[in-house]
Design goal:
Blueprint: E1 5-8, H1 18-32, H2 38-42, H3 49-60, H4 66-84, H5 96-105, E2 109-113, H6 119-125, E3 134-136, H7 149-157, E4 165-169, H8 172-180, E5 184-188, E6 199-201, H9 209-215
Parallel strand pairs: 1-2, 1-4, 2-3, 4-5, 5-6
Helix pairs in contact: 1-4, 3-4
The protein binds 1,6-di-O-phosphono-beta-D-glucopyranose (B16) and magnesium ion.
Length: 220
């Protein structure tokens, strides 16, 4: 199977920004007068900013108007951007850089498929931007994962058929999005959560693109 495009999710696959999202959400919850636990935070992974806020408010048993919600989301984002602005290459997840280098060396194109509106800033801080032929982030798509838009757009722009694409994702909603886009899927993380993926690996560390490609089925 000759793949032509590898699409990577950002948070949880290339970098662990979830901890910074959590710090900012926890700070917001504290300001609103309740505790937001790490277990609650699991529900926010891969989910858009506004939807994340809605889940947080649900946890706190609070209701807010649209204008208030916009202000709260903006406040959380200001804190989050402050945290991620201090990031550097040391925060690239183990094996991710080597994996991107291998994909490039194989002559396969690389795209990002992230829900984050801050994805470009993060890739710049990690000095990874140059590896990407195209970046789909939260500013380009209107429908969140599990909608396939984020991945389909990358394939469309780079003019690659979906069955020649593979998606690397750490969230179940992202695997569903990849499947719905008609692409191969590799789950990065727990096989209990990512069982819908064609293959699941614990992390990109020590994984080889070439050998993963050989393990994929005939068709997505
Ligand atoms: P922002 P991914 C997602 O990134 C995060 O997993 C999720 O927790 C976050 O709410 C979402 O980005 C939006 O991020 O507030 O920066 O626009 O996993 O799709 O790379
Ligand atoms: Mg993710």
């Amino acid at each position: 199977m000759k793949l032509e495009l590898a699409i990577f999710d950002l948070d949880g696959v290339l970098v662990d920004t979830a901890k910074y999202h959590y710090q900012a959400w926890k700070r917001l919850a504290a300001e609103l007068g309740f505790h937001f636990s790490e277990e609650h935070n699991e529900r926010l992974k891969g989910v858009s900013r506004m939807r994340s806020l809605e889940i947080l408010l649900e946890v706190g048993g609070l209701e807010k108007s649209l204008a208030e919600k916009e202000q709260l989301a903006e406040k959380k984002n200001r804190w989050y951007v402050e945290y991620i602005s201090a990031m550097d290459e040391s925060e690239i997840l183990p094996g991710a850089l080597e994996f991107l280098q291998e994909v490039k060396a194989e002559g396969v194109q690389i795209a990002l498929g992230s829900a984050s509106k801050n994805a470009r800033l993060i890739l710049d801080r990690l000095h990874l931007t140059g590896y990407f032929d195209f970046i789909v982030d939260g500013t380009l798509v209107s429908k969140a994962k599990p909608d396939p838009e984020v991945f389909s757009l990358a394939a469309q722009v780079l003019k690659v058929a979906p069955e020649k694409c593979v998606v690397f994702e750490d969230a179940a909603a992202g695997i569903e999005a990849g499947r719905r886009a008609g692409m191969f899927t590799v789950g990065v993380g727990s096989s209990q959560i990512l069982h819908e993926a064609n293959i699941v690996i614990p992390s990109l560390d020590q994984a080889s693109f070439k050998s993963l490609t050989r393990q994929l089925p005939e068709h997505p």
